[in-house]
Automatic annotation (TrEMBL):
Name under which the protein is recorded: Bifunctional non-homologous end joining protein LigD
Molecular function as annotated in GO: DNA ligase (ATP) activity
Gene it is expressed from: ligD
Keyword Ligase on entry: yes
EC number: 6.5.1.1
Keywords recorded for this protein, A-Z: Ligase
Keyword Ligase found: yes
Domain DNA ligase D polymerase: from-to ranges: 28-279
Domain of life: Bacteria
Pfam families documented for this protein: LigD_Prim-Pol
Length: 293
């Protein structure tokens, strides 16, 4: 029988708690749910009001993985949803607004991905994102070098950048924006990527062509498009270990000398929150929003 629990007055069925999702470490679904309950205070503000896309991996990283954007069958009636525009016509997606809906979503076993806009203003970007993706033999070490250059370049335009690990090989840089059409944010991000390639041609590539990427850092500017999404801060990733897309300090970025230096796992969260709090909290306040030039 599926165990039931109550979260802030909502009854939830939480299933297969002993199931091992990350065989390399024995990390179970119960531990995954515990992680999200622990992360809720810092995670929820970054999810709130943003239509959620799920990259589901119910049998672990070696099993089937698939994206879910529409409201899944069986979604409780108390989970908030929002109508979002699509090229094929409007659809509905989940909004994770509170702890009960977060725990329901976590029970789906999924990475959480969000767009750079909120449900109340589709296609109006209030964040800029640059995804730094290393092509082997480049690693996160090279990503950090590029990130430091981009931080200074963004600062020159009045934008404060915040860094997080991708939870995989690279880094994500985010900046709060006074809302602009997603097309404009995309154009600006592409311009920065082109500038970075001109400044560091031996290290950076801005084009998506995979043949150009070995040994370089691909500065992916395309995730600013209205239809694209990015892994949310604090989401677990479908990797061999329970890696987290975790905020990092600029001191950590500047001091990165080896690929494992910024490999952060679920167990690292609590001590990091005690030390730093939410390093991406400034993204949530309008007072930190920059104006695109």
């Amino acid at each position: 029988m599926t165990p039931m629990t109550e979260v802030e007055g909502r009854r939830l069925a939480l299933s297969n708690l002993e199931k091992v999702l990350y065989p390399a470490t024995g990390f179970t679904k119960g531990e995954l749910l515990h992680y999200y309950a622990t992360a809720a205070e810092v995670l929820l503000p970054h999810l709130r009001d943003r239509p959620l896309s799920f990259l589901r991996y119910p049998d672990g990283p070696d099993g089937q993985r698939f994206f879910v954007k529409n409201v899944p069958p069986g979604t409780p009636e108390w989970v908030v949803t929002a109508e979002v525009p699509r090229s094929e016509g409007p659809a509905r997606q989940v909004l994770v607004q509170d702890l009960p809906s977060l725990m329901w979503a976590a029970n789906q076993v999924a990475e959480f991905h969000t767009p750079q806009w909120r449900a109340g203003a589709p296609g109006e970007a209030d964040r800029l994102v640059l995804d730094l993706d290393p092509g082997a033999p480049a690693t996160v070490v090279e990503c950090c070098e590029v990130a430091l250059w981009l931080r200074e370049r963004l600062a020159a335009d009045g934008l404060a950048a915040y860094a997080k690990t991708s939870g995989s090989k690279g880094l994500h840089l985010l900046a709060a924006l006074a809302p602009v059409p997603s097309e404009r944010a995309t154009e600006y991000a592409k311009r920065l990527a082109v500038e970075a390639e001109k400044a560091m041609p031996e290290l950076v590539v801005h084009r998506m062509t995979r043949a150009l990427r070995p040994g370089k850092v691909f500065v992916d500017w395309s995730q600013n498009a209205a239809k694209k999404t990015t892994a949310a801060p604090y989401t677990l990733r479908a990797r061999q270990e329970p890696m987290v897309s975790a905020p990092v300090t600029w001191e950590e970025v500047a001091g990165c000398r080896e690929p494992e230096a910024l490999a952060l796992r679920a167990g690292d969260l609590v001590p990091r929150l005690r030390e730093h709090g939410d390093l991406m909290a400034p993204l949530l306040g309008a007072e930190r929003a920059g104006v695109l030039p």
